[in-house]
Each structure stands twice: as C-alpha cells, then as structure tokens.
Amino acid sequence: MIGGFGGSGAPIELIHALIARALATRSPRDLTVINNNAGNGHVGLAAMIEHGLVRKMICSFPRSADARAFTQSYERGEIDLELVPQGTLAERIRAGGAGIPAFYTPASVGTQLAQGKPEAEFDGKRYVQERWLKADFALIKADIADTQGNLTYRMAARNFNPLMAMAAAHSIVQVRKIVPAGEIEPETIVTPGIFVDALVEVPDPAQEEDLNRAVARFP
Fold this sequence. Notes:
Blueprint: H1 12-25, E1 31-34, H2 44-50, E2 54-59, H3 68-75, E3 80-83, H4 86-98, E4 102-105, E5 119-122, E6 125-131, E7 135-141, E8 144-146, E9 151-152, H5 161-167, E10 168-175, E11 177-179, E12 198-201, H6 208-213
Parallel strand pairs: 1-2, 2-3, 7-10, 8-11, 10-12
Antiparallel strand pairs: 4-6, 5-6, 8-9
Helix pairs in contact: 1-2, 2-3, 4-5
C-alpha cells in the first residue's frame, strides 16, 4: 500500500528509496500495489512502474494527468489492473485494518466491476459484497511523529495514509519532523504508534507535482 491522493500525502522519498534498492539488487519485483491512482510523470509510483517493480495495480484512477508509465505498461500487457470505486477502495482498506473480512455496498451494482461477486438485497436495494484489503507493507507520509511512532498529518495529505497504516503488517513512515515522546498533544494524534513499525525523518520532502513541473525523472 502506498499513501497519497495524487501527489498529496505521497511518500516520494520512500518510493524512490525502494526503486534504488530494486535497481541495485533486482528485488523487489512483481509487486501488487494499492494506491488511489497509478502515478504521474516519471517519479514516485510512475517510476516504480517504469522500472518494472509493479505487476498489478489496485486503484481508483489509473488515468490521471500524466499516467503514461501505467498506460504504456498496461497496453503492453506488463501490468494488471483491478479497478475499484474510490469510496469502496477506502472502505476495503479500512475493513482490512479493522478485521472485517467483507461488507456490502451499492457501488458498482449492475456494472462489470460487480461481475462474479456475491450480491444481496437489503431493504429492497441491491448490494455487492466487497472483500477487505490488507498488505504486507505500507509506505506512508505523515507530518510530525514522536519517538513512539504517534503521527499527525498535514491537511489533505492525511487521505489514505492512516487507513493504510492500520491495514498493513508493516508500516514504514516518512515524516517531516520527529519530536520527543509527549510533545504531541494526545487529542491531535491521528495514527497511534502501535500501527507504525519504522520512521524516517525527511525535513524537506519532495512534492510530486513540483517534480513533474520540472520534468524530473527518477533515478
């Protein structure tokens, strides 16, 4: 799982570190990646796809501003796609973190996305069954963390990140600043440290949109 809503809340530095490792060691490869979209330009998730790390995307918006990396790989048959309505994607991830194996939603009833899935009627309305989503690893971006792993987020950068931290077996988090335990007011903590396995401090994180405007390419 990789957090972010487009470039907002996308852990660019963690993604690039993963790509650098894969280029140096040939591992990991053939990943299934869960994200809201499928990357833009030649950085972040798009760069993962360009360098052959991703075998399957589970996302809501595979076609965004500059999704050439995904589009070209998909047209060549190099990557699979599971398309999920955005609200359903968020709820499947939340269900994975909450230990709920399945739920029913009216989204996608009567469409190709519902084919082969169980359906049921509640109060005279049709619903399709969706399964939880879980992951071995989540790469997420937060704003401030304390040394116990408690996290806060900056505005819309929160998006999928807290849900993914809960739904993954191992959560690796990049943050702008790490402070001593106790410096974050308890009522402002969004993700408790119990869901965080590793912290990386990135004081000046890159923004995907800025990189793409500069026509950046990784590596």
